[in-house]
Design a protein that fits this description.
Layout lengths: L3 E2 L5 E2 L10 H4 L5 E6 L1 H4 L4 H10 L2 E4 L5 H4 L9 H12 L3 E8 L19 H18 L6 E6 L12 H6 L3 H12 L4 E6 L5 H16 L6 E4 L2 E3 L5 H12 L4 E10 L10 H4 L8 H20 L4 E6 L28 H13 L1
Parallel strand pairs: 3-4, 3-11, 4-5, 5-6, 6-7, 7-8, 8-10, 9-10, 10-11
Antiparallel strand pairs: 1-2
The structure holds (3S,4R)-3-hydroxy-2-oxopiperidin-4-yl beta-D-xylopyranoside.
Length: 356
């Protein structure tokens, strides 16, 4: 169903599209569409979500379970149960299963960076821990996980290398080492660098420099992931477009790995609830339409460059599942809290259909 052109010339995305349209059936060749899933989804408890995920998507990402802290909570202990369920969920459905992530400054236990006598761990200790972690986790899912976010968020806004505990303890080559260990552990897996705000030129330049350094070292790297945690007005659509073109010029696959559109203002802690949580009682129609328009626009860019873009992944299934709520009411995704498709879903369907 197409958007309706009103007498005012506005395109309205109607609500009444049945759930029988599946995004995965509308994707251009060579581009998969996926969603980050949580415990209650991959363990089967949330049956309505499982049905929707199975119907709509051909790729999954793990919202949390494959991160360092949950899967490797102590030096001598790995906790694989949840991660195994996540991977099996995708294998059972013949989905492309992504691993997220191996080396990051966040969601990593403090023990990883501690040496003897309360001192920070030295380079050799950190490299040994990194290698053990990567070999164990990547090795376990060899042949099942299609591609890994090897390093997440290593670049600062100014384009410099973030002084993460990995960088401080190992040195700048920690990124190269992570890619080397990941390739060793599964030579067939795709390997990615993943980060946010790549639409900003200084940060993007830093990322491009980093991946070119990996390429110069003849290390395997297959793609760059743009997290794509975006808002209604920012980044500007032209910046998304220009960024895609520049990233693709590295020769690497370009992916949108954590897509959502945050509708809430960036207010300080303790702000007036009316300002901080403006849609506590529901989303006004005009904002609903703006969200649909925004999704139409961003999919327009992805589809314009469809030879360069290999994957689009939403960071959560429905508004009820999104990490962006955090005590407020946010509406960043294509399905509402009752798991009904929103006008934004129709907008994405229309964009995909018009490229067929
Ligand atoms: C988020 C999860 O969605 C939350 O559940 C968790 O509490 C924090 O991490 N960038 C990333 C993701 O690469 O791993 C983050 O996921 C969102 C930002």
């Amino acid at each position: 169903m197409k958007g309706l052109i009103t007498t005012a010339g506005l395109v309205l995305f109607s609500l009444a599209l049945p759930q029988d349209t599946a995004l995965k059936d509308l994707m251009p060749k060579g581009m998969v569409i996926g969603v980050a899933i949580n415990q209650r989804q991959f363990d089967g408890t949330d049956t309505a979500a499982v049905a929707l995920i199975t119907k709509q998507f051909n790729q999954i990402s793990p919202e949390n379970v494959l991160k360092f802290q949950p899967i490797h909570p102590a030096a001598d202990r790995y906790a694989f149960e949840a991660a195994d369920q996540y991977v099996q969920f995708g294998v059972d459905r013949h989905m492309q299963v992504i691993g997220h992530n191996l080396v990051w400054h966040s969601q990593t236990g403090a023990w990883v960076f501690q040496g003897a006598d309360g001192k920070p761990a030295d380079r050799d200790t950190l490299l040994a821990r990194m290698r053990d972690h990567i070999r164990t986790v990547v090795g376990r899912y060899k042949g099942k996980i299609h591609g890994w976010d090897v390093v997440n968020e290593a670049i600062e806004e100014d384009g410099s290398l973030r002084k993460s505990p990995w960088q401080v303890g190992i040195g700048d080559d920690y990124v190269a080492k992570a890619f080397e260990f990941a390739h060793e552990a599964d030579p067939d897996a795709e390997l990615y660098y993943n980060d946010f705000n790549l639409e900003k030129s200084a940060k993007r330049a830093g990322v491009i420099k980093l991946v070119k350094d990996l390429q110069a070292r003849k290390l395997r790297i297959d793609g760059i992931g743009n997290q794509a945690h975006w808002r209604l007005e920012t980044p500007a659509i032209d910046d998304i477009d220009a960024s895609l073109v520049e990233l693709s010029a590295t020769g690497l696959k370009v992916m949108y790995t954590e897509l959502d559109i945050n509708l809430l203002p960036n207010t300080p802690r303790g702000a007036d609830p009316a300002a901080a949580n403006p849609y506590a009682n529901g989303l006004p129609d005009d904002v609903q339409q703006q969200l649909a328009r925004r999704y139409a626009d961003v999919f327009g860019v992805f589809l314009k460059h469809r030879a360069a873009v290999t994957r689009i992944t939403f960071w959560g299934l429905s508004d009820a599942d999104s990490w962006l709520n955090r005590g407020r009411m946010n509406y960043p995704l294509l399905w509402d809290r009752q798991r009904q498709p929103k006008p934004a879903f129709n907008a994405v369907v229309n964009a995909l259909r018009s490229t067929k």
